[in-house]
UniProtKB/TrEMBL annotation:
Lipoprotein-associated type-17 domain segment(s): 40-121, 137-225
InterPro entries per record: Lipoprotein-assoc_dom
This protein's name: Variable surface protein mvspJ
Organism: Mycoplasma mobile (strain ATCC 43663 / 163K / NCTC 11711) (Mesomycoplasma mobile)
Lineage: Bacteria, Bacillati, Mycoplasmatota, Mycoplasmoidales, Metamycoplasmataceae
Length: 226
């Protein structure tokens, strides 16, 4: 015959069984928390690479953050690492930005702030703009190509695809300044701004140097008139 077990003993055993389960989840949570903290502590500013150091910190935003600022390791010991820009942390004077770095395991997250330096400063940008300005100032006329063809072509027939057939973009300078030509569109945004009565074409010349740029509008003449 089976010996009858006291009901109080059963209750006690059940209670012990429940208590023995709780520490498992607590330990797992503590372990994950420790992993996250360890991963976050291992992340320093040098783990991030600035793609273009000619950009101001204020030119980094939610849209381009992960392409302009990349991390060497997105997963550390099972911890997923993400980052975002801390509000009001951008400083163009010092060329710095503060990130909120987040470590995640499942639904458990921890964060830390990390300052990243190395972006172009306002002082550097202004100096680069001055260099670009000095380069563009002497240019008052754009060199025309294929003069015979220009004389028989209406300015209104020029578009982006054939612009370089009629006008030469100034060559880069030895100091690194580069030039680009772009059309100025009419209000309809469908055609380049031209005047077939005077045979002229308006273009925007831009000089750029290490993130700093200036532009001016120049008119190319000599096109066929109507």
């Amino acid at each position: 015959m089976f010996k009858q077990i006291n009901k109080k003993s059963l209750i006690g055993i059940g209670a012990l069984a429940v208590v023995s389960i709780l520490p498992i989840s607590v330990v797992a949570c503590a372990s994950n928390s420790s992993k996250i903290e360890s991963a976050l502590n291992s992340i320093v500013a040098t783990n991030f690479t600035i793609s273009n150091k000619n950009k101001l910190a204020s030119e980094i935003n939610l849209t381009n953050l992960t392409t302009e600022l990349t991390i060497t390791r997105a997963v550390i010991d099972g911890v997923s690492i993400t980052y975002s820009i801390k509000q009001k942390s951008v400083n163009d004077t010092t060329g710095t930005i503060t990130l909120i770095v987040t470590g995640t395991i499942r639904s458990l997250t921890r964060t830390k702030n990390l300052e990243i330096s190395g972006f172009q400063t306002t002082e550097q940008r202004n100096a680069n703009i001055a260099i670009a300005q000095e380069a563009i100032n002497p240019i008052t006329v754009l060199e025309r190509t294929q003069l015979n063809q220009i004389a028989t072509t209406l300015a209104s027939s020029v578009d982006i695809s054939n612009l370089d057939l009629f006008v030469q973009t100034p060559f880069p300078l030895g100091n690194g300044v580069r030039f680009t030509l772009s059309p100025i569109f009419s209000t309809s945004m469908e055609q380049i701004k031209t005047d077939d009565t005077t045979g002229t074409l308006a273009l925007r010349l831009t000089a750029s140097f290490n993130g700093g740029s200036v532009s001016k509008v120049l008119t190319v003449d000599g096109f066929k008139k109507i």
